User: Fold these one by one.
Assistant:
Number 1:
Amino acid sequence: MATAPSSVVAHHRARVGALSRDRQPDDPALAEARQDLKAATLESYVAKVLAQAPPLTSEQRERIAALLRVGPRPQADHADLGLVDVDHDA
């Protein structure tokens, strides 16, 4: 059973829905709202996982933080971080 989205995620989802009704798909405000929704969803997911996980070591925290510091790069460029693709649908 799926859990209800956080109020922050629900807010951003509603904003995307409202803007989608009368804006073009490439509208800057709609694009920004979609990006905000993605960020809120990621933040909510990370908080949920961290709440359920055992405490992380300093090395684990550093590796995870490195993912956020690298900025947007093609997936292949993440090889230097020792990351592998994970199929979440499997």
Number 2:
Amino acid sequence: MAFKLPPKQKDCAFRVKVAPQAGGMARGGRNQCLLPNNVLPADARGYGLLAVGRHPRKLAILAKGGIETRLASDPVEGEADVLIEATGNATGFATARSWVRPGGTMVLKSTFQGEISLDASGIVVDEITLVGSRSGAFPPALDLLSRGLIEVEPLIHGVFPLDHGLAAFEEAASGALKVLLSM
């Protein structure tokens, strides 16, 4: 599925400014969180990133890329200047929000089933900036891919010819990160 941004809408990767010494966290192990983690270190030299999630296999992909990782069940100390929230659930959102320092930025990647509770007063008092990010334009993404700044190979679990499409869907249903069909 593809989404088109409004004509003057900037992509999140270009809207959120990251200071060189900023500390950041990514909360959530959804597949969509693996690429933002992959892009940010290349774009923000000196940026200290911590990825927190429930899936050791996904965290291992990030760790291979030099990103510090932690299981969600482990205590996390400190606060993030920038936090990417990609948990997809209300509890994960609340925990992620508690990790953003006053004056920090929370990038929302999740789309939630139903509604979530939001402490608007806490966001106002702590002067938290919320940035929604659903999808972006293809040209900047293709540029990053062509320059080798985004490594997608670790996300690909298998490639199947189109006439083996049912086997590809079975593989995807087994918990594979990404399964591709080739033509």
Number 3:
Amino acid sequence: MRTLRVRIKDKHAKALDAMACEVNFVWNFVNELSYKHLQRTGEFFSAYDIAKYTAGASKEGLK
């Protein structure tokens, strides 16, 4: 396996941190939602099911 190493310029660090926070927020939301659904029904969410819950996502957060 090969690993690509790329140096990110410092001027992009703030934007990349902001994008990482957004991805982490959605990841945590879907993870919590999936866990609650699994506890209640005993079934896992499909990607189709998750799309319905994240359809309202915007820059302001999940609505």
